[in-house]
Amino acid sequence: MEESPGSPPEAARQPARGRRRGGSDARRPRVWDAEGLGLDVLAALVTASADGITIVDSSRHIVYANPAACAVLGHPLDHLLGADWLSFVPEGERETVLTLFASAARSGSSPAVAIAARRPDGVEQEIELTATALHLPGRRLLVAAFRDVTERHHQARQAAVLAQAAASVAVSDSIDATVQAIAECALRGTRALATWLTLDGEDGARVGAAAVPAEFRKRIGPAAQARAGCPMFTQALMGQRVLIYADARQQVERDLRTAALARSLRSLPWQGAAFAPLIYRGAVVGVLTALYREKELPDEAETTFLATLADQATMAAANARLVSATREKMALEERQRVAGELHDSVSQSLYGIHMGASIARERLAADPARAAQPIDHVIRLAEAAHAAMRALVFELRPESLAADGLALNLERQAEAVRSRYGIAGRTVLDAEPEIAIEVKQALYRIAQEALTNTVRHARAGRVDVRLRALRRSVVMEVADDGVGFDPGATFTGHLGLPSMRERALAAGGSLEVVSAPGQGTRIQVRVPSTPPATLPRERAPRAASPRTGDS
């Protein structure tokens, strides 16, 4: 290090010399060793390197730095020379650097580590640092090479965040949880101080917020009003991709309609803001907002990232509307089905009870001995009506699945159907399966639909129900000896089979229908079992003894 600062140690000029290798083969490329290449050429390579290269002495002081090192660390060469390398590293990262330097001094080199480096303006950036021992006579030096990986890591984080947001939209059945997750993703994937997402809905605005003051979180409920009243939001409603305002704070504070909202953000050192509207079928249904410090507005990459997140939120809004419409349709169909059940069973039973009681009363005065027959008929009808009502109530409120389990409830449902319609059959049940309560509900509803189809369409004399808990799956079967049908045919207006198939798929399983005209029908559902460690807390499984019953 006797040469002038900024030059590699012992950069003595030597003539470039090379030697040919490989005998007399003139077609082989000419290979140069370090001596033949020349230290002046190596010095030029170090100077032109895009990676930062510094050389430090045994006390960690910098004795050489190339132009790239000056650019990454944000200091001119005269500020770097003689400075302790640790002075450019935050306090929490210094132990990592000391360990890396010690490893290189001991073994000759070190693996790369990712650390933060602080620039003169206080901004921290991510660098990837390696160290290599430099052996010179009488001196112990280390080459500390590094590169700026801030953008690369930022892009990786954004990709991970987008994947998380997409997963949240795909699997979450709660629009509130999805809105909150996307707001948090926006904060993690940008340099924003705070973020929030407002999503309009028929039942009011949904809001998710990250890193906002508590007072602001209370006021953001009626966010749609603030968005509509502010001129910036008015422009956002016109369908722009992303709107960026360097003076957003001043505009919000000046507008009387949003001044109160602005006051709740006073604790944040923000100035600018970015607004990404959520556009669904040509209408703005929400806005993703991000607040930024002064002179830290989002660049093109962050703008694209916010727009992509807004698209994910729009997808969530579309899913929410589809789910809402589907639930309304299912609720209407369920009400119609229950009304039909009440008319076909309970109403008719009550009419029969009324007629039987009237006949018994007439006979009671004229011939008391003959009154017993209609009274017995009334009792049978009352028992059947009670069983039917119990089955209908359970269909509407299946809470006992969590308390009593799937196996017991399948047995109850099968017995109620057999008793009500005079059908024979057998129920064979293994131990309570280790599956989530949502999967149990799906299996129960499928069995319910299959039994209903047996009663309405199969004209069966027997229906069997079986539940098997296998090693990696749970299999449920409902089989009857009815008239059968062609599973490949289309039955206009009948939603039973499609409904069963959709429930099975939603539970992660499959449904198989085996039938043919005159040969009965077998419905088999197979769903994966749940490992015990991932099961929700519920009542312990019942004993493994199978239950069977014949009617």
What can you tell me about this protein's structure?
The chain is about 45% helix and about 20% strand. The protein is built from 18 helices and 15 strands. The chain folds into three domains: about 35-150, PAS domain (Beta-Lactamase), CATH 3.30.450; about 155-325, 2-Layer Sandwich (Beta-Lactamase), CATH 3.30.450; about 405-550, Heat Shock Protein 90 (2-Layer Sandwich), CATH 3.30.565.10. The protein has a five-stranded antiparallel sheet. A five-stranded antiparallel sheet has the order 7-6-10-9-8, with helices on both faces. The protein has a five-stranded mixed sheet with strand order 11-12-13-15-14. The radius of gyration is 38 Å and the shape is elongated. The N and C termini lie far apart (about 100 Å). It has about 550 residues and is α+β, with helices and mostly antiparallel strands. The protein has helices at about 35, 40-50, 65-75, 75-80, 95-105, 150-170, 175-190, 215-220, 225-230, 230-235, 250-255, 260-265, 300-365, 370-395, 400-405, 405-420, 435-460, 495-505; strands spanning about 50-55, 60-65, 115-120, 125-135, 140-150, 195-200, 205-210, 245, 270-280, 285-290, 425-430, 465-470, 475-480, 510-515, 520-530. Helix 6 packs antiparallel against helix 7 (about 175-190), helix 13 (about 300-365) runs antiparallel to helix 14 (about 370-395) and helix 17 packs antiparallel against helix 18 (about 495-505).
